[in-house]
Structures are given as structure tokens and as C-alpha cells.
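User: Okay, second chain of the day. Same drill as before: sequence in, C-alpha cells out.
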Amino acid sequence: MWRFAPYILKSLWRHRTRTLLTVCGAAVALFVYTVLGSVRDGLDALTRGVEADRTLIVFQASRFCPFTSRLPEHYATAIAKMSGVRDVVPVQVYMNNCRASLDVIVFNGLPPSLLKEARNITVTEGSLEEFERGYDGAMVGQALAARRRLKIGQKFSVGELSVTVVGIFSSRDPGAENFVYVPLSFLQRTKGINTVGVVTQFEVRLKEGADAKELARAIDMRYRGGPVATDTRTKGAFQARAVGDLLELLQLARYLGYACIALVLALVATTTVMAVQDRVREHAVLQTLGFTPAKLFGMVLMESLLVSLAGGLVGIGLSTGILAWQGLYLSTEGVVIPIASSLELALTGMAVTCVVGVLAGLAPAWRAARAEIVTSLRQV
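Assistant: Same drill. C-alpha cells below.
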């Protein structure tokens, strides 16, 4: 069938305006589908993996934003002594906006000596030793550094915070590359924050075999009577709760993705039907020259598939390129959701495009293959 590809391409080019409009419409639909899929994959990644199940997050009970969580720092000593606990990392969180946003700067203050192990980062520029020795030094994720054009030695200010970039890091977790890490003592003593002896949360990493749910209940029971009650969850559950409202919106967005696929199906099917109607006599002539109904069926089906594939390649290619170039992310309550396309998502999109192209061409291909020669030749 591929030997008839030149003829099929000429047929499509004969009505180039109609073909290009269909390809553009399919590209826009697949662009939206891929972007929505990237956001959904980013959310799914927050609750998957060993770290999501083997790390507990201890917050103040009844908090509604990291700003409102204030736990005594000495809790870390008692929690570290509990059975099943490997280590405890006190973290102070500061951000310029607690609501869902595409441009939130999240600062995490933690003991400098624990940074590399607790966050599993790789320093790409600068020095971790400089961060450990300094007071106002900051380690900046490479995604944030690229977006804000930050360089080593540059001053960086957000609200009341002013830090010096001493290092840029990469991470296996794309969301972590949008964080800024500073020494815990510096963040606690920053003018306007003043939280000496208080932290936002504790990250409790568990030993092998420890029961995460049982340990979470034990921590909350220990501090149920104060001085500050706690709310302890696994990291995955904590992040799922933080992005709960976004998850509901994405359920609606999922239907929007399905609508995009239906739009591509309607566009390609309409274009293919019109193409078949325009070439009724031409198909009859081909039949008189020896073309079997099966060959006509395959040619029309290939035409539909090529149009759908062209739109899919453009839409998926644009979305993948833009997301890689812009490095977009979504943040809410200190949880960062990376929006990045993946090879798996791109391949899924292309598979969907192929299926839609075939489905869209079935009816017009069947019509072309079943048309009678004499009746077709009489049409003007």
C-alpha cells in the first residue's frame, strides 16, 4: 500500500487549504491533550515511589498553609528516639505565595550538613562546602536558576529574604529543582520571620521494616496533649492532600483530554469524507483500471491516517519542546508539581493519533470501496 503514497500525498495537496486546516486543528487538540497529560503525570509522580511511602511528614495539626505550622524544634530529639525512625530532618518553609501558582519560590531551611543526604541532590555548579560554611548562602535548583537566570555569587531576593547563590544542583525529582535550600538558622533568624526554636515540619525517614502508619499514629498520640499537636502522614499522603483541589480540577481536565481526542476524530473524519466525495469519479476510474475495493479501502484509510499523524506530530512535538524549554511547574502549599512531557506520554499520544486516524477513515473508506462503478461515473 505504501507504493501509492505519492498518489495519496498529491490528493491531499490538491486541497491543501482544507488539509492544512485539519492538520492544525488536530495539532491544537493533541497539544492540549499532551499538556494535560504532563500535569497529570506530575501529580501522579508525587504519590509514587519508595520515598513517598517510607518518609513521614510531621506538621502542626489544623494548619492550612506551611506559614501556619509552628512546631517546637526540640520535637526532633524525641521523635528520633522512637522505634523505627532512622533520622529526623527539621525543615522551615518559606514561600512568596501559598496558593496555587505557576511562579512560586519555595525556600526550605534545613541543617546544611543534612542537605545532600536528605534531598539526594547533585551539585552541578558552585560548592556544597561553601553552603555548609556560609550563613546566607543558598543552593538553587537548576530549573529555577535557568528560569530566573541566576548565577553563582549573585544576590537573590524574595520578600524579606535576601540570599547569595553559592551552588546550583540537579535532582532525580524534577520538582525539587524548583526549590531554594538555605541554612535553617538563617531562615529562622531572618527579619520579619523570627522563628528561632520553631520549624514548619519534620521529615522522618524510616528504617527497613518499620510500619509507617503505626509510627505516624504514635507521633500524633505523643503530642496530642501539646504543647503543639501534630498531624503526621506519609509523604505521598501529605502531598496528595496538599494538591487535593488540583486533583479535582484534573478530573475535569481528563474529560477535556477525551474531548480533544473526539475533536481530532471529528476533524479527520470530516476531511476524509469530503475528500472521498470529491473523488467519486476518480475512484470509479481506478476501479476500471483494476483497483480492487480492498485497495481503495486501504488508500482512503491511509489518507486519513496520514492527516491524523501529521497533526499529532506537530501538536506533540510543540508541546514537548515548549515544556522542555520553559520548565513549567505548578506549586501549592509548598508542594511543587513539575509539568514536563515524557517519552512515554509522547508515544502514547502518537498511538492515540494512529488509532483516531484509522477510526476516522473507516466509514469513508468503506463507502469508497462499496461504491458501484457505473453510478460513480455518472456523478458530476
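Residues 244-278 form the longest helix (35 residues).

User: Thanks, on to the next one.
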